[in-house]
Amino acid sequence: MSYAFEMANFYSVGIRILHVVDKPFGDKYTRVLSVTPEELASRMEGEAAEKMRKLIGTLDSGLSVEGVIRHGSPAEEILASASMINAGMIVLASHSHTGLTHFLHANVAEAVANKAKCPVLVVK
Known about the structure:
single chain, alpha/beta, Rossmann fold, two-stranded parallel sheet, 5 helices
């Protein structure tokens, strides 16, 4: 986030922090659930919103900071949000998956960088 704030301060623009709640997958979601998929998605969104509120509350910046939560494919939602607000730049982190993990996990940073209509800064 420091890179995003550095760029926003340099250009005197606001920041939109976007968190995309993807469909749950992996070991911790394969157990029998006593909640509906809608309840699980709502719980995940609530947790993400609370973390975002705390994060924005800790930021000491004169910049306009907006927090947004979306559901769906992370790359698609990032690109749609950037297009909707006519973003001047997208800043995102890379998880640096390689080998089999790269094959098994979609590389969001790569997809966004390849399809975005604005500059993309990928931070490792």
